[in-house]
């Protein structure tokens, strides 16, 4: 694989008194345009790994993290300039679209304005693409409404449209269907995967729902925890299932 996200020798350590949680990733390669699901028990580090990949969490010393492609970027090196540096925020905003568990839409902007926001922030305005996304995701009738007037499923679809609006190489979705009933969850996941694939964006999602992940044929990385020398250590392992 030549293009993609490559994370090597990565470590993030969380400490709370004597309690230590350590996420370790030896080698992880994520291909553009593909989907992968992070699975594992509650507390196994799925959100932590999503945060690390999405440049929301500073990795430990020795971590190598890069985007390889025509416009290669040393993603790990961006942290050297400080957590709040402008390059880090700019690259994070350009490389990733985020779908939180419950939409995360700005409540004072309409659905259409929420969807257009990443384009404004990344200076890549394209009203036609926003309209296409809103239509594809079945949101045309509610595009002028504020998020508070939408169902949870509609909010999730709006969050997917927003995550894809600036055509990021990867969408990061933390349990995007956890708040939905089974039928809505299927529809939202299908739309997320289809729309991302149509545009060539990869999807990195976390989920507890092994049946649904299997049904959609999404390859899995399972986060497995072990107790090592009094610490909880979690590692992602590719699942043959
Ligand atoms: N300050 C801290 N010190 C030590 N451990 C911590 C600290 N903060 C969080 N943790 C631990 O980090 C681990 C990873 O949490 P994370 O939210 O990534 O898990 P998760 O797999 O996403 O869980 P869930 O499925 O419940 O959302 C948890 O076991 C949590 O207890």
UniProtKB/TrEMBL annotation:
GO molecular function: ATP binding; ATP hydrolysis activity; transmembrane transporter activity
Gene Ontology BP annotations: lipoprotein localization to outer membrane; protein localization to outer membrane
Keywords of the record: ATP-binding, Nucleotide-binding
InterPro entries listed in its UniProt record: AAA+_ATPase, ABC_transporter-like_ATP-bd, ABC_transpr_LolD-like, P-loop_NTPase
Keyword check for Nucleotide-binding: yes
GO CC terms, sorted: plasma membrane
Database matches in SMART domains: AAA (SM00382)
Residue span(s) of domain ABC transporter: 7-241
Pfam family, one: ABC_tran
Family note: Belongs to the ABC transporter superfamily.
Protein name as catalogued: ATP-binding cassette domain-containing protein
